[in-house]
Amino acid sequence: MRCLHSLLRPARLAVTACLAVALALIPSPVPAHAAEPAWGLVASSCTAPDIAANRAVGIGLVEVEAYWDRYLPGGPGAVNAAYVADLRARVTACLDNGIRVVLGPGTQYPPAWVRGLAGAGLVDQRGKNPTTGAIDTVFSAAVRGAQNDYLRRLVADLPSARLDGIRVGTSTAGEIGFPGPNEAGDGFLQSWWAYGADAQQGTGLAAGTPVTPMPGWIPGQRTWNGRTVTASMAQNWFLWYSRSLLFGIKGQVDALRAAGFSRPVHVPSPGKGVLPADLTTATAALLGGAGDRDGSLGRGLYYVDQFPALAGNVAGPLVVDLTGVDDATAVVARGLTPPQDRCASTDATASVAAGTPVQTWSNLRFARAQATRAGLAAVGENPGPPGAETGGTASSDPIAEQIRRSPAYARGCNLLAFFLAFEDVLDDPASGVTRQDYARAVTG
């Protein structure tokens, strides 16, 4: 698919025809699989006690988190040999005991020296940096180079040929996306994180990533370089912004492939992203704040476009990890008449048909439909306990209810695997849930 590059060329302002072609080139949907989803855990320690406990209840798949700041704490090439040896031993122990492993590389935990690299600080339209500590893995060539060096080391230092997959992301949660609402910390809800010199002027821009098509333009402004800004120009700018994330993802995948990793790459994807109707409303208002239903605009999440573009431009097997299984939107959607939380065989087509009330669908249902449209396999995970530093909120189901409901969502949405968040929740007596509870939920 050539549109990923031609659409983002700086001088290009017309987008509608290219987008139509891009969406017409979507691969055939992934065939329905008859197999039961694999049942796993997020953030496993792969220590001997947890391996034994997981095997005892039939858990055969885990995600293991690495930490960039522990791996290379002292600078480029300054490997912490003791940490690497421990990580390798734990991953190998799980594999040798028949437990499949997906590696989370932990690029959301950059070492201090990476924060000092050129262009490392994300900048929004008001010159603010995110208070969450997010760095610019999308536009900064220096950060991209350091990150890719780290990924290549992971492939070389760990039993990567035996892994079920490696995750990639751009956010502080390890997911695709820019920082979210009010992450500039100044009370202004909507930030657009593309105002560093790399994105605006091309200074230190990561190779292949296009500079903004409208240098200096700030969403909401009605003129640019003496021209009246139209809705189509605003849409083109947003598509440049959202597709910039894909260059960040593709850069990581390319580094993994160049290092010899041929197994699946997982892209954790939160929420449902911008809906087509949202984008119409938002661009008619020149991205001045209207139509931003849940902060997805500033995060740059537009799965209707991004999943097909990923499928057509990223090498090797790719899996989207939908992180909204039984999240707060599922609670609301299943309370409607009729309920809107369950995936249906017609969702891929219906989700982009005019008049379908997709705003009432759960995040999982809508995002799964976009993965199907793009021909991408999908796995999923729940948000975790409400109030935790996760996707769990006060509106989410309690963790025991998430455990009870998630297997049906995983089966009904044709997920290849479900990862329960988190292993340490099941190890904590105060949580009130155990591995046996998870096993009972899975077996029905």
From TrEMBL:
Region described as Disordered: 377-397
Extent of the signal sequence: 1-34
SUPFAM superfamilies on file: (Trans)glycosidases
Coiled coil: none
Biased composition (Low complexity): 377-394
The organism's taxonomic lineage, starting at the top: Bacteria, Bacillati, Actinomycetota, Actinomycetes, Pseudonocardiales
Alphabetized InterPro entries for the sequence: GH
Protein name as it appears in the record: Glycoside hydrolase family 42 N-terminal domain-containing protein
Keywords of the record: Signal
